[in-house]
Amino acid sequence: MGKTKFFIPFLVVVVFLGLSSIFVVDEREKALVLQFGQIKAVKEEPGLAFKIPFIQEVVRYDDRILSLDTDTIEVTPSDDRRLVVDAFARYRIQDVVQFRQAVGIGGLGVAEDRLSSVLNAQIREVLGADQVTSDTILSENRRELMRRIQRQSQISAQGLGLDVVDVRLKQTNLPEQNLDATFARMRAEREREAADEIARGNEAAQRVRALADRTVTETLSDAEREAQVVRGEADAERNAIFAEAFGADQEFFAFYRSLEAYEKSLKGENSSMVMTPDSEFFDYLRSANPDQ
Prior knowledge:
It contains seven helices and nine strands. By secondary structure, the protein is an alpha+beta fold. Among the domains are: 15-62, no CATH class; 66-174, Tetrahydropterin Synthase, Chain A (2-Layer Sandwich). The strands form three sheets. Strands 6, 7, 8 and 9 form a four-stranded antiparallel beta sheet that branches. α2 (96-103) crosses α3 (107-127). The longest helix is centred in the last third of the chain and has 73 residues, at 176-248. It is rod-shaped. The N and C termini lie far apart (190 Å).
């Protein structure tokens, strides 16, 4: 009984010490074994690991790709047209020992503050470089600018034990005080383009109308000329018929022409003529018997 009395507490202490000396490293993390603040071991592979209980401690860091949104800053490209820019970065802890030495007990909070300062500095440097205009930043060509920011940030972030995987510009806008002026300039440009289009349309319409008027004039002139030709031919044919009829029976032709003259002269209710009774005009109205 005496041995059992001391064996059970001893066994409990041994089990407790054994469990305290074992820790598990997850596949999504890296771990450092520290002894009085000094790094004694680095555990980057997942699985079981050991430490000295009470003397050593384990500090874990995320091994996944992390995201960081930068603060909004103003940049001035080479054309002096200020832009408001904010970005986000993808990064991971590459060297956990160097990371611990750089940020100490501050961890990711301190690291992200420093990395944000690095990114903002590189954004200002790259976007403010010579031959980089606001149009370039706002166009599809900014992909190359983002790659330059990523490469230069990567160099600076190595001192923090970080690997900058990617940098993206989320938005690139004009400052509020410049928006109205920019919109006014864009509106003026669009109005000028609209005025040019209207002027070109009016010019084209004038050409079409002039061509149509000339076509109408030429068509009417051709029609009038053809009509004159047809009338001339008809008059010639009529005169030929009259001449032929006159030559065939001059007496009947004279009678027919006199009837036409009577019809035209005596037309209307109030028509009146004054002439002598023996006028040749009434030759065909006189009776063949003078007594009648």
